[in-house]
């Protein structure tokens, strides 16, 4: 129904953005991939998918066609809803997901929070013939600039809680990652690494 939104970026968070389109503010859920590609653009265009449930209308946004296409493939799988699809796209890059599907790498997909062995196998089985056919080369995502350790910790914690992590587990994962990297890590990489530390 809504193919894309183009307007002024009013607010940006690792899990969602607010875009002002002709005076209407749209809240759009995004993955870490899209977050890292947005930078601090003032005018923004996101490809969107509108998910309608009885109790909610939720917009999901993507910076690139490849990511939206993969998202739509993922949510076509029984047992993979839009939030799980976004979690997969936040934990792994589009290329990593497609590579895992093509090579039958169940373990990589299973590392994503909320994905069990059966769902991972189903994703591989059902998407093996559908991915990789129209992939275009995407440039490696640019790293976000370093922020002060406390601010980055707070933002990462908020993002993990929004993605469904219990606060205590999220704090523990973030601390482990920051300890390994001496705090020298971008927000996107910190969230990504924390998603995998389970």
For the structure shown, list the relevant keywords.
alpha+beta, single chain, 20% strand, five-stranded mixed β-barrel, 198 residues
Structure description:
- Helix content is 46%, strand content 20%.
- The protein has helices at 32-38, 65-75, 82-91, 94-102, 106-110, 117-127, 149-162, 167-181, 187-196, and strands at residues 4-12, 16-21, 24-29, 43-53, 56-62.
- Strand 2 and strand 3 form a beta hairpin.
* Overall mean pLDDT: 85
Spell the H/E element sequence.
EEEHEEHHHHHHHH
Class from helix and strand fractions: alpha+beta
As a percent range, the share of helical residues equals: 40-55%
- Anisotropy-based shape: globular
Strand segment tally:
5
Strand order of the largest sheet: 1-2-3-5-4
Major sheet attributes: 5 strands, mixed, barrel
Cα-to-Cα separation, first versus last residue: 37 Å
- Which runs of at least 5 residues are low in confidence (pLDDT < 50)? 134-147
Strand percentage, roughly? Answer: 15-25%
Number of helices: 9
Global Rg? 16 Å
Summarize the structure.
The chain has 198 residues and is of the alpha+beta class.
Topology readout:
Blueprint: E1 4-12, E2 16-21, E3 24-29, H1 32-38, E4 43-53, E5 56-62, H2 65-75, H3 82-91, H4 94-102, H5 106-110, H6 117-127, H7 149-162, H8 167-181, H9 187-196
Parallel strand pairs: 3-5
Antiparallel strand pairs: 1-2, 1-4, 2-3, 4-5
Helix pairs in contact: 2-3, 7-8, 7-9, 8-9
């Amino acid at each position: 129904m809504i193919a894309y939104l183009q307007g002024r970026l009013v607010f940006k968070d690792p899990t969602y953005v607010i875009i002002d389109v002709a005076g209407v503010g749209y809240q759009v859920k995004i993955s870490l991939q899209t977050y890292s590609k947005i930078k601090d653009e003032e005018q923004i265009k996101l490809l969107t998918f509108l998910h309608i449930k009885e109790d909610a209308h939720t917009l999901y946004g993507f910076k690139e066609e490849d990511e939206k296409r993969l998202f739509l493939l993922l949510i076509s799988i029984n047992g993979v809803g839009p939030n799980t699809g976004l979690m997969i796209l936040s934990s792994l890059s589009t290329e990593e997901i497609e590579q895992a599907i093509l090579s039958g790498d169940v373990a990589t997909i299973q590392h994503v929070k909320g994905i069990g062995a059966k769902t991972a196998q189903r994703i591989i089985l059902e998407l093996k013939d559908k991915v990789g056919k129209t992939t275009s080369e995407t440039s490696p995502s640019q790293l976000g600039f370093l922020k002060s350790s406390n601010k980055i910790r707070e933002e990462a914690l908020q993002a993990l809680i929004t993605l469904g992590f219990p606060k205590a587990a999220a704090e523990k994962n973030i601390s482990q990652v920051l300890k390994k990297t001496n705090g020298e890590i971008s927000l996107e990489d910190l969230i990504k690494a924390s998603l995998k530390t389970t």
